Known about the structure:
By secondary structure, the chain is an alpha+beta fold.
Amino acid sequence: MKKNKSKLLLTVIISVMLVGVLSCGKENNKVKNSLNAEKIEKQSAQEQAGEKNTEEEFTGLGINKEFKTDGKLHEEKFLNKQFMYPDSNGNSFKIEKDKKGYFITYYYIEESSNSEEEYTEKVEKSRLKLHKNVYLIDEEGIHAYGYDTALKNVVILNARDNFRIIYEAEKPE
């Protein structure tokens, strides 16, 4: 009889603990759902006010001008020519073409982790995808490159924001 009471008491204690754990999980889900609803409401209010979601605008707006084109790529304006990124210390790029299509070579300077005075020139290559016969989009789909007919220059575009101009590429001196 004493063993049955102990088993019954143990079963009741375990049941109470399980109910507590399960209800705590439900409260946690309610809090998460509430936070998600607040985030969605905030994003909706920003969109209605015409604001951009800063989490999605990680590429920056740059000069944020409209890209002007005549519907042509104008590869003769940039192919096999090196261009500098504005406000950078020697960072540049060159767009080239081979039998597989277009690719970009990035040239940039990286500080050595051992010394502040040591710098290493790095080179990276990646493929570009031709889009609408006007833009060349990088593999990540973040940036695009094109020739702006109004500026008469190669520009770097935000591929995630209707191909707005981020930077005007600079020709090396």
